[in-house]
Amino acid sequence: MAKRLGKQTYALEKPIHIISTATIVGEKEKNGPLKAYFEHCTEDDMMGEKTFEKAERKMMESCIDLVLEKAHITEQDIDLLIGGDLLNQLVTMNYSARSLNVPFLGVYGACSTMSESLAIAACLLDAGVGEIITCATGSHFSTAERQFRTPLELGNQRQTYSQWTVTGMGSCILSCKGKGPCVRMVTFGKVTDYGIKDIANMGAAMAPAAMDTLYTFFQDTKTEPKDYDLILSGDLGKLGSDILKDLMREKGYILEENYEDCGHMIYSASQKTFQGGSGTGCSASVFCSYVYKKLCNKQFKKIIFMATGALMSTVTNQQGDSIPGIAHLVVIENSSVAK
Amino acid sequence: MLWASIWMYCKVFLVGGAICLLGQVLVIKTKITTGRILVIFLMIGAVLGSFGLYNYLVEWAGAGATVPISGFGNSLVQGSIKAVKIYGLFGALAGGLMATAGGIAISIGLSYLVAFFASSKTKKN
Amino acid sequence: MDIQERNKKYIEYVELVSPKASWGKSLFNAFLIGGGICVFGQMCADILRYFLPMTDNVTISAWSSMMIITIAIFLTAFGVFDNIARFAGAGTIVPITGFANSIASCAIEFKKEGLIFGLGAKMFFVAGPVIVNGVAFSMIAGVIYWIITLL
Predict the structure, then answer these.
(1) Of A113, A154, A252, B73, whose CA is between 20 and 30 Å from C135?
(2) What chains are in contact with A, requiring at least 3 Cβ pairs below 8 Å?
(3) How many domains does chain A have?
(4) What CA–CA distance (Å, rounded) separates B125 from C81?
């Protein structure tokens, strides 16, 4: 049974190994600074399909196939699939699960879906529900753009504080047995809303939620930022991570070099994404490639992975509501250093 | 004659540019989106047009005043007012669309046609 | 702390740290491209006037607008328009090109949802309000004018 620490944090009893990960990213991500870590890139983001929605689905399906292949298991071995994406009714994930014939839990945490599904999967495994759980999340620039913003060919200027939705999928397999980095602790976040209404300024909308979760986690576990090799936030972007640093400083925790942001890492400044990447695929693809590889070769021993999500819809936004944010946190340790 | 037409083109450039510059100021100041900018400028043109003020600008600057969407608003209102003189109340209802029917029809018809061969592409930057 | 006060403080702080658009450059681009499109419109009008000397000014300017609309729609179809617009900002939105682009881009985007409820219905996703407001206003103005003529 998981042990409860403080209010929102749970320390897991069993070691929950992340035995394998896989990523698929689009062309723009492939040209970014992390290209060496992405194992599978696609030149054609239509994936040979007729619509972007179908393409996203196909990308997701091949990402799950890839992770199964890498772990040398088949879909019959999976006890549960957990995942989500950005689209209405989670169409990408639901339709991908249709072709897999495994029990499925669809979760929506906007861009925080990766850490949310990791946290749920780890807790379920710890409680003895199933033995192998697959988590998969992803997003596609073109489907998200046409759902949340404007048609692709509409001529408008992006705000300098806006972010770019990542075309990318990430999937990983969690198991009680096997090898690989372990999920040690999870913190489920609260929905936090500081009244930001500008749909382009997602970093600012999500930063308070990130602060809330991170602060609660440090309070619950009585640890400090310097106890971790890496504190990785989801997709706050450059502006959002600067805001998070300021907010954390107000609370008395100083985030230094060991703090990074997936959105900030995935694109270089010359790619003109302004504040960096966002979307479910952002934290998923960075975590499942760069972070996982560095955890495996022990460059990182103990990390905090906290993906953040902005939970708005176009309808609430047009009705003048502000944008709530959420952040879920998981602590991952390399198994060899664990007690 | 040559100087007159050069001066005309200067006026067109200045007035057209200035209207767009005003739009850009609005974009930066209020962060409004495409639809809203279009409506705001259309209404500016329509309001000025209904008092007959916009026509002075059209006479002075030609395409500099007719090409921006405010010119479209002006044509709607002017068309409506002109048609009242000929058809009475029926003109008030039909005149606006009659005057701008060409522009609207070509926008709709051509968009319909190009949609058959074109498809949207993922933006590069 | 009161939540409203906290939010107000936070929004002010975000406003302060958010990077600002560079005024000079974007204003200059909008002016240049916007003015350029209008000059092109004037050129079209002058050429038309040369070939059709008997036509009145209103028709000439309507024709030149239609030429610009045609070009804007084709640029949209070939995926070039959004790159120009990224540079020009309001310089391409405010001229009639913005109106044409907003119809064409929606038509291209939503044709995947079918010809009736995709292309047909969502074509006016952005430009609809323009036509709605314009027609409603012109009707009101026309009716008021009609009442005045009656008096």
Answers:
(1) A154
(2) B, C
(3) 1
(4) 13
